[in-house]
Amino acid sequence: MPSLLSRLDLLPIRPRDKHEGGRVASSLELFFDLVFVIAVGLAATNLHELESEHHIWVGVGAYIMVFFAIWWAWMNFTWFATAFDNDDWLYRFTTIVQMGGVLVLAAGVPAAMQHGDFTIATYGYVIMRLAMVSQWIRVAVNSPEYRATALRYAGGITLVQIAWVLRLALPESYGVASFIVLAMAEVAVPIWAEQKNLTPWHNHHIAERYGLFTLVVLGEGLLGSANAIIGALQDAEHVFPLVVLAGCGLVITAGMWWIYFAVPQHDHIENLRQSLTFGYAHSIVFAAAGAVSAGIEVAVAVRSGETELPSIEAGATLTVPVAVFVLAVWALAIRRHVGRTANTIIPIFGVLIGLCAVLPWPEVATSVLVVVIVATLVVTRRPAAHRPHATPPTLDRR
Question: Which helix (H) or strand (E) holds 168?
Answer without folding.
Answer: none
